[in-house]
Amino acid sequence: MKGFYNLFQKILKLLVNLIFILQIVLTLTVFTVTMYWLMSLLGQNSFDFALPLADFAASTVHIFFNGNINGGSFDGTFLVFDIAALLLVFIGNKLKMYIYGLMEDVYFSIEKCNRQEEDNLNEDLQKDYEKSIRRMANSALLLDFELKSLFEDMNISSSASLKEAEEQVLKTFYNDVRPFGKCARTGNRVLIMLNDFKKTDSLLKYIDESLNKIRKELRSNRCMLNVCTALETYDADTPAKKVYELLSKLINLKIKNEIVCFGNFRLRYELELVQSYLTVNKGIYTGVEVWALVKKD
After folding, report:
1. Which of 80, 176, 241, 261 is the most exposed place for a label (fewest CB within 10 A)?
2. How confident is the model at residue 75 (pLDDT cuts 50, 70, 90)?
3. Taking a C-beta distance cutoff of 8 angstroms, is the pair 165, 218 a contact?
4. What's the pTM value of the predicted model, to 2 decimals?
């Protein structure tokens, strides 16, 4: 349909140009014939070069009126020709206005087709995009634990006790989350890898409950637990080492007691029907956009 409108628009433009040329020709003809007529009446021969054109004008008028048009001694042949030619110029203007109206309607029809094509393209791109995002069917979480005493002055024995308490916290948490998926621990970090993205929401809620329970127990010992949590999504072809490196970049930002992720995870998470968390833009960190997951009320 768009091809038809484009062709029709070109035809209309051509028709307008032809009418414009015809108007110029008629206007010049009227001027030349009129000047020849006036010069002839005055007995001047300065416009005799226009005699063939004047003869043509007279012949054209005589075809329609079957002879000369005389008003006594006055020959009105050229006057009738001028009036008829100017009338055609006027009709040409009206016709051009009508064609311009048609061209505007055709233009809006083409724009409508363009918008429809654009909407269809965007819809196809969105489907392809969602398909590619859904291929990332796995998710990974990396948590970095830091236990601090609420007392400012600590001796060596207190520091050692804090390390023991931190180790106990890590063991407790590690045993709590092991049933969810593959788990690994290195230093004060715990890595959890899920082969089903749909379990991510449940895991996040469980981790939140587990950490709240641990923090409650630590408060009685005058200790404070800070946890940096990073999330990432990946497909089956992505090596675990690369996933860990991406998560480490987020952990190294040291955004404590928040769940942070890159844009890929946010986009994948927002495709889920069940979302217990909102994604909030944290800003640009080291040239990369970072998002946070905030639990819904």
Report:
1. 241
2. low
3. yes
4. 0.58
